[in-house]
# Entry
Amino acid sequence: MDSILVTGNGPLKGQIPIAGAKNACLTLMPATMLSEEPLTLTNAPRLSDIRTMTTLLQSLGAEVSTLQDGQVLAMSSHDINNHTADYDIVRKMRASILVLGPMLARDGHAVVSLPGGCAIGARPVDLHLKALEALGAQLDLKDGYVHAKAPLGGLKGGVIDFPLVSVGATENALMAATLAKGTTIINNAAREPEIVDLAQCLRKMGAQIEGEGTSTITIQGVDRLHGATHPVVTDRIELGTYMLAPAICGGEVELLGGKRSLIEAFCNKLEAAGVEITENENSLTVRRGDNRVKAVDVVTEPFPGFPTDLQAQMMALMCTAEGTSVLEEKIFENRFMHAPELIRMGAQIDVQGGHATVTGVEGLKGAPVMATDLRASVSLILAGLAAEGETTVSRVYHLDRGYEHVVRKLSSVGAKIERIQEQ
Ligand code: EPU
# Structure
């Protein structure tokens, strides 16, 4: 297993291009199964999770070709010849559950392995299943698999009332409803930019959707969808992560493709901490001078709140802030696993249930640390950039799931970072 060696070496300067969003691409890809005509995605990120989704779609009979060094995904689902998403693929990536809605809507039946728990929480899929039941699907759970069948004549429009906001369940419901007969209303829908991106792509394919980006989405089912070409929206979590690099090390970095509207709540917290953010035509510039950042409290919430996917990285910044901050994690029950690793680097953090109290220290010290999940791994890299001496982050396969060319991007703004390949 490879590791990443980071040596703290002061302020950063330069530009970092931000890729297309992993979490948008992972829901746009299964949308190919809603149509027999080709769906082409541009601005796709080059990540191992995208390769896993490619393998899953191919296992179902879809054609997926990667062009332009992986930035273009040309897909066609004219011949879906297998309707079982196998445990061996699904267990690697929870987003695999997103093939359920499209496959069921198009062909009237689907079998998908249940994903199981994961490091950051139990993460059940009950809301995905309830949403499909509201569209008339009959579901059986057998041997760890969901066996789903649509009524004769296909799924029917219905009212879906989510008791809590779920990004994935909203996506599955939205995709399935595009081909259901009649009108579907999704109440308490997720409002994330990835949902808006999915709705925009589906509309290009001929779907009739209103209200994406609000809590109520209305879908008028159509008989068939056609082909389309769609650019994946900017990755707001990669954007926020790299905005934290100059915030934690000092310096000035321009994030190409960055837009404030994608992460307004995060920008407000960064500014409250004393970091300068300037919005340009197609980028954000982040600057911190010699001042130490100030402690700010953070509560993670569904969009437009502060994203849980930036909580670990924000904690790394708070470890070096002046004062004490409280980070409250409200989305996942076990998403503080980076805390003990940050403590190994000299951070002062006290975790009690869903709250982490961080008392900023003047400086962190490099140490060998271990990545436990995707966002935790990058928070340790950020901490390493600001620490004195060397930090080795092991288990970087987590990082490869969600950050393309992390070494190249951070080196280009002056960070001392390298990947150590296992012999
Ligand atoms: N939940 C249920 N039942 C369900 C679905 C969700 O109880 O059927 C709960 C979850 O356990 C969680 C909460 O609802 O406590 C919210 O989960 P959500 O369904 O919104 O999350 P997700 O769709 O599984 C996506 C992202 C995550 C991101 C969350 C929250 C993708 C592929 N993943 O997951 O991304 O943290 O939304 O914003 O879109 C990451 O990229 O590092 C990552 C974990």
In short: The radius of gyration is 22 Å.
